[in-house]
Please model this.
Amino acid sequence: MKRGWIRIPQKEAAARRVWMCALGAAAGLVLLTGTIYGAEPGNQEIPEEAAGSEMPEHTEKSEGIFPDSSETVESYLAELDFSDIDKILGEQESTKELHFRELVERLIAGEEIDKGWLIQEVCRMVFGEITAFRKTLVQIVLLCMVFAILYNFADVFENPAVTEISFYLVYMLLLVLLMKSFFILRDVSAEVLEEMMVFLKVLIPTFTMSMAFSGQITTAAGFYDMTFLLIYGMEWALKYMILPAVQIYMALELMNYLTEEELLSKMTELLKSGVAWALKFLFTIVIGINVVQNLLTPVIDTFKTGLISKTAGMLPGLGTSINAVTEIMVGSGIIIKNGIGLAAILAILALCAEPLIKVGVMTFLYKILAAVIQPISDKRMIGCISSAGESGRMMGKVVVTTAVMFLVTIAMVTAATTFHL
Model:
């Protein structure tokens, strides 16, 4: 006996050999029983020409054994809590009539969205914003016309002081109107960003639970942590960096056109470029994290699911049944997950639709107004109005970029966790 080995008594070694022989005999008996079970007369395959009327009876028994996919989908939906999501959607004017579970069920059933109603709603929002903004537009046009008249009278009297005083009076009134409309755009943009954040916070638990139903447990855990980190990071960056930068840009632009020389133009260009680069950086970070995570975790979950299914399929007599039940349950989970993902995308679009239309309409009207009154107004007033339109465009870009980041995140996770059974 070599040093370090444990000495085993002969009786104990003999007992182990007996146990090994017994286990081998039991395994052989199980395999033999499965083979015989598959070859019993009652379980033999019946030729097609001799099947007769016995096949429908066998099919009916099989349908009674295996769960129906529709019943599995309903049971999964019953396990999910949509009350917080419906509460958040009900607090908003544009989504108060939207019920999330009903939307998921309609999407799963394959119902199409009424395109005529959608176009009608968009047109209603656009013309409603034009009507609401009409009063401000008329006031700005009147101010520009008044300044043009005062400017011509000042030229008649050849007194430059009158021209400067009249310009500053009209410019202060114009500044008040533009700042008032800008604050409306800022509040609308900040509100819709907050609504998206709150909606995603209540959506993530439900969406990750639906991912777990489809066997994507590792991906669900990673998505849960990553998305909450993304939400809080985006909320901090937008609230304390990007939105204040747009406000500072608007204030500096209005101050820049107080004098004939543009003393703050380089500063405003720097702020504008900084906001654009910050949005591009955030978008790149979000897409990069999603791509890296979706390259690995869904593959791990798919491998685990396939391994369990194939291992269960090796059991004699029960493998086919277990595989059928597994496919029904995992397939139903994938349907629920994809339905919730698509419903979440539509809900985010519904939340953003009206604020984006408001911001887009006001920005477009500012641009149109600056082009129309350019022949009759001072270039500094034209620059002031154009800067208000540019600030609105930057606000709209912030909202669109944020919405696209969340939409791409949901779409990429939904697509990456969908696999063929």
Notes: The chain has a mean pLDDT of 74. The first helix runs from residue 10 to 39.
